[in-house]
Amino acid sequence: MKIIKGGVTAAKGFKASGIYAGIKKKRKDMALVYSIVPAVGAGVFTTNIVKAAPVKWDMNLLKQNKAIQAVVLNSGVANACTGELGDINNEKMAKAVAHVLSIPVSSVLTASTGVIGKQLPIEVIEAGSKKLVNELSDTKESGLLAAEAIMTTDTISKECAVTFFLGEKKVTVGGMSKGSGMIHPNMATMLGVVTTDVSISKEMLQAVVSSGVIDTFNMISVDRDTSTNDSLMVMANGLAENEIITEKNEAYYLFYAAFHYVTETLAKMMAGDGEGATKLLEVSVLNAATKEQAITLSKSIITSNLVKTAVFGNDANWGRILCAMGYAGVEFDPDKVDLFIESSLGKLQLVENGMATDYSEELATKILSHKEVTAIADMKLGTAFAKAWGCDLTYDYVKINADYRS
Amino acid sequence: MKIIKGGVTAAKGFKASGIYAGIKKKRKDMALVYSIVPAVGAGVFTTNIVKAAPVKWDMNLLKQNKAIQAVVLNSGVANACTGELGDINNEKMAKAVAHVLSIPVSSVLTASTGVIGKQLPIEVIEAGSKKLVNELSDTKESGLLAAEAIMTTDTISKECAVTFFLGEKKVTVGGMSKGSGMIHPNMATMLGVVTTDVSISKEMLQAVVSSGVIDTFNMISVDRDTSTNDSLMVMANGLAENEIITEKNEAYYLFYAAFHYVTETLAKMMAGDGEGATKLLEVSVLNAATKEQAITLSKSIITSNLVKTAVFGNDANWGRILCAMGYAGVEFDPDKVDLFIESSLGKLQLVENGMATDYSEELATKILSHKEVTAIADMKLGTAFAKAWGCDLTYDYVKINADYRS
C-alpha cells in the first residue's frame, strides 16, 4: 500500500468541484463528487433519531440498491428539523445536479452540514448546482476545493488517498471529510466521501464500510454530541478493472486495509482538528477481556471533560482516567490497571496495579506538552485492544460554541 | 412543611464542627457531624467501579445494620486509588473520631473529597479529629462551618433545612452537601449529609433515601463525570419522638416530602454552583411516554456540551436540544416535539411539532440572559415527566480543570 497525495479525485474516473454558492457569508459552501460511470454505493449514517433530510434520502436510495454516480454536499445549513419542506428542498438539490449531469436523480446522494432548523436557500442551491457541474475536474486541486467547501468550524481540510495492487491492477482509494464539533459518531460519522476505482459487489463494499468504521470514525469524539447529519458515503466505480470482489478473499482484505487506512487517517484528522483543540489525544486500551470492553473503556476516557481539560493543562491527572474507566459501565479490576502516557517527547508509567508509581510530574508535564499525546491503559485481563481519538477541551471550544450561530 | 435556616445541626440532638486541619493549603478541610444518641443510618453511593476507601467502608457498615452516630469528612484528598494503605488510613480516621467520642468505630461513617490517587496525611487527620470533637456544637454556625469544610471548587456552601409535624411532634430534616465538578451522580451523589430527628425504621429510611435521590441528586450533572467518592449519608436519631415509621403510611410520605425538598434544594445548589458556571439550567421534559423516557431525555439535554455552551452564550440554539434528545437512545417522534424556554424574564415557544416557530431571537436572548433558565420539551406522548438540573459550560470550567492539581 502506498500513500499518495490527493483525495476524492485520486481514483480513476472521479471528478470533483467546490464553489461559493452563497449559502454562507463568505466561504465556499457547495461541493460535488462525480464518477464518470455509474458506481456501486455504500454508506453509514447517524444513529440519531433526529435525522436530517439528506440522511433520510441517502438511506432510502442505498436500500434500493440504486447505482450511484454523484454526491452533492453543502455547508452552512444542515437541513435538519426542517419538516416536509426540508425533504422537498433536498430532492430539489439532487434533481438540480442530476438534470445538469443527465443522470437519474436516484443516482445522486446528498449531504448537508451547518445550522440545524434552517431551510436550504433552494434557489441559491439550484444555481450553485449548475456551477458545480461546470467546474468538475479530475485534478488534485478540484478534490481539495471540494474538501474545503464542506468545512464549517474545521480549521484544516481533510483528505487522504492510497494505492495498492490487486494482481496487475492498481487500485486507488481516496477520501475527504469534515467535522470539528458535534462529533461523537455512533455507527456513522460526520460528512465523509470515499471514492475508489475498485471493482466490488455492493454487498462486499457495504461490509467493508460497516466494519471499517467500527475502528475508525466510530472511535473519535470531540464532544459526545452525535450529530443529526453524520454520513459516510462511498462510491466504487470499478475502473481499476480488477477481478470483481464478491467474497471475503485476499483482495477483499487488501481493499479493507486500504479503506481502513484512509478512514482512520481522516478520523484522526477530525479529532485533532476538534473545535478549539490544541492537541490530538489517542487512547489505547490494551489486554482487555473483550473487544467491546476495550472500545467502551477507550471511548469513556476520550469523552471525559475532566480528562480533556487536564490534557489541555498538561496535567497528568491520571485519577480522572481511572475514574472515567470506572463509570464506563463495564466490569474490570481497578487494582490491576497500569497507565502510561506517551508522546514523541517520551513515555512514562503513571500507575501500576491501580496505584501511583513514583513518577516525575515534571517529565509527565513535558510529555503531555506535545501536540499528539497517547494515554495507554493495560487491563491485564485478556488480549483485546482498541484505540480511540479525541482532543483537549479548551477555552476556544467554549468560545466557538457559545455564539456559533452569530 | 416550613423552610428554616440551618443545615445538619437543625434537627434535635445533632452537633457539628468544621476546622482547618492542614490537609489543604489554607482553607478548612475537616468536618464532623454527630448525633448525641445512636441513629438509624442510610446512604447511597457512587456506581463507579473505582470506589474510594471511605465509600467501601460506609457501604460495608450500612450493610451490617450498625447504628450510626457520626460522619467524619475531609476535603483535599479523595482517598481513591490508594490501595490497601488507603483502606487502613480510612479506618484510622474513623477510629480517631470514635476514640475521642467514646463510641464504637462501627458507628462512624467517613467521606473524602479532593485529588484522586494521593494518600491521606494520616497524622494531620488524627490531630484534626481531636480538634473536631472539641469544637462540636449544635449551633447553626457550627453546621455552616461543617458545610464550608467539605468545599473543594465550590464557591458557595450548601445547606438546607425544613420542619413539619407528625401529629403533635415537630420533625426536622437538615442537610449539607458539596459538589461542583466531576458531577454526574448515578444512583448516588457527591458528598451529602442529611440529619433528621424523625423516628423511623432502617428499612423505611433507606427506602426514602433510595427513591428520593432518583428525582434529585441523580438528576443533576455538571460534566457527566461520575465521581469515585459520591456519597449521601443520612442519620435519623428519633429525638422528635414521633411514632416510629415502619411502613409507607401518611407519616412516611410527609417525611419523604421533607427529605425530597432538602435534597432537591441541595442538588439545585450544586448544579448552579457547577465549576465555572454562570447559570443554573433546568430541563423539564413533559408528557413523555414513560418516566424512564423523560429521565433519559432530560439528562441527555442537560449533559450536552453544545447545549451548555449555547446557554453560556445566551444563544437559543434549539437544534442542539433536539439533537441531544435524538441521540439519547430512546424512541420518540421528533416531528411532535414542542420546545420552550423560560426564565423570570419571560417564556417563549421556539419549536412547534419539531420545527422553528417564528420567534424573536432578541426576546430569546433576553430570556436566556437570566441566571436561572428553564428549557421545556413537550413530547405529546403520555403523562410522564422529569426535571434535570445542570449549568452552562464556560471558560472558567476549562480554567479550573486544566490545572486543578496545581
From TrEMBL, chains A, B:
Q: Which residues bind substrate?
A: 152, 178, 189, 275, 401, 406
Q: Which SUPFAM superfamilies match?
A: DmpA/ArgJ-like
What are the record keywords, sorted?
Acyltransferase, Amino-acid biosynthesis, Arginine biosynthesis, Autocatalytic cleavage, Cytoplasm, Membrane, Multifunctional enzyme, Transferase, Transmembrane, Transmembrane helix
Per the UniProt record, the site (Involved in the stabilization of negative charge on the oxyanion by the formation of the oxyanion hole) maps to: 113-114
Pfam families on file: ArgJ
The record's HAMAP family line, in alphabetical order, gives: ArgJ
Q: Which NCBIfam families match?
A: ArgJ, PRK05388.1
What's the protein called, per UniProt? Arginine biosynthesis bifunctional protein ArgJ
Biological source species:
Lachnoclostridium phytofermentans (strain ATCC 700394 / DSM 18823 / ISDg)
Quick one: which gene encodes this? argJ
